Structure formats: C-alpha cells, structure tokens
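Request: Mind sharing a record?
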Amino acid sequence: MNRETETQPTAEAVALDKIIVGISSCLLGQEVRFDGGHKRDSYVMGTLSAYFDFVPFCPEAGVGLGIPRQPIRLVRQGEEIRAVGTRTPELDPTDDLAAFARRTVGQLGEVSGYILKNASPSCGMERVKVYNEKGMPERIGVGIYAGVLMESLPLLPVEEEGRLGDAVLRENFVERVFVYHRWQQLNRSGLTAHKLVEFHADHKYLIMAHSQEAYQQLGRMVAGAGKDELDRLAEDYAVTLMAALKRPVKPRHHVNVLQHLLGYLKEHIDKLDREEMVETIEQYRQGLVPLIVPITLIRHHFRRYPDPYVMRQYYLSPHPKELMLRNRI
C-alpha cells in the first residue's frame, strides 16, 4: 500500500485478506479433547471467522496422548510444575508438550494472534489449577504449551476464549491482532526509517489512548530513526508498542484522545456542533453511551472537514465496524 497517496488506512481494507490466527483445535469443533469431545466456540466460529483464518493446534494430541486419553493436570513437584496423568501420575508429557510448543513456534511466522483454551493444563494462558503436595488446587498456573508459546513469541497477541466474553478484553485482543498484522506487513515489505515514522504517525492516537508514557517513549525512539541501527530500533519499538497495547484503555484515556481530536475541528465546526461533541464525550465518560457514539460523531465531522493527518489515524477505525466491538465498551 502506498502511504504517499493513501489518506485513510482502514481496518476494513486490511480485512479483505483474512488474518492468520492460531487457535486451540477444540475451539473449532475438532474432537480432540481427552474425552473425545470438543469445545466449539460460537463467537470464534460465527463472528471472528469472517476476518480471521484459523490455524488449529492441539498439543496433547500432537504429542501422541491419544483421543480419548487419560486427563492430565498440573502438579507442583518441588520447584517444578509438571503435567501428569490424573489416574497414573507416572504419565508425564511435560517435556513433550514443551518440545511440541517449540516446534510449533517455528511454524507461526505468518500468524498474527493466538486464541487458547482456558483452564487447560496444556493451553491455559493464566489461572490454571496447580495441585500442591497435599492435592489441593491453586489457580496460579500456565499451561505447559501456552507458557512456551508466550515466552518464545512475546509480541504475539494471545488471549483465551473465555476472556473473549469480556467486551473490553475482546476489543483489546482484536485491536492488537490488527496492529501486529500491520507491523508484520511493514517488516515484510522492507523496513525503512521513513516507513517506521509513518507507521508511528498512523498509530499515534491509538498508542496515546493506551499509555501516555509509551506514546512519549515511542516518539523518542522514532525521532532516532535514521540515526540509530534500524533493526535494533524496530525491535525495541515493537516490544514497547505491543506491551503498551496489551493494557486495556480506560474511559478517561479515550476521553483524552477524543478531546485532542476535537481540537483539529475548532476552526471548522460552529458553537452548537462543538457543544454537542463535548456533551457526547462527557456522556461517554459517565458511561451513558458506548464509545462508538462519540467516535461516530467525530468521524462525521471529519468527513465534512477532512484533515489528512487525522483521517490516517487507526484510532478512528482500529478494526472492522461489523465486529461492533466499540458498541459495547
């Protein structure tokens, strides 16, 4: 895409080609669970599948535990946490699951996100039951496969299907997938200092919404583009960017960004339009209307009075509107 002539990059345009996302196989309805069943997720299959091309992985089946199979659970053994059989503790596929994860990581170069099965001793992202020496469970664990995956690919947006039921976490995950996908495309196209500066400019207000500190830090990094070693700079930039985006945006930070954007309209809209915009932002701050209401209104004004810089901002359209993710936050 030629950024010299493109004035409004949109998530809708990106979504014309589906984004590749890894996923626990059972969430697609594949009968790979220990009991020979599945955990088909209707949101994944009914909504996200229109925009994401899912690549399934089942580590327990992948290491040859069989279908059906003896269930496994996480058990603390001294300083270690191992995955062992619930009926036969001698069954210990921990090392095999970790090795499978390392092999899988090598296959995920095109993947822009990953959805894991919650509570799974292999795939759980957080709060997985770990049984102590007394046989009592504590929700402090991470699945063996998931732990290696997240440690090996720290930039990759990862979420559990259970947490996707939370509107804020759902919007945050999908936003991160689209940002990371654009970052991958940027690197595949041949990263230059100019392209990095443009990428940052396009995401300025999106970053600001998540973290003022990260926004300032990333701005200083980009200011060194062309002076510092580009590969190292890009690596540091991506780490800081994706860590910042992982923090869900608080309403007051959306309000701050909306007020900044409103400043671009002060010479164009009349007093009544400005008062309406201010009132709508305040209604959002009070929780009376969802985020999509002030976003829609401010986009309406920018369609009437286009500003090339503002219309480039992914903040205004971070993901396809059909997903309606900002209708619920």
Residues 168-329 form one domain. The chain has two domains: 12-165, 168-329. The first strand starts at residue 19 and ends at 24.
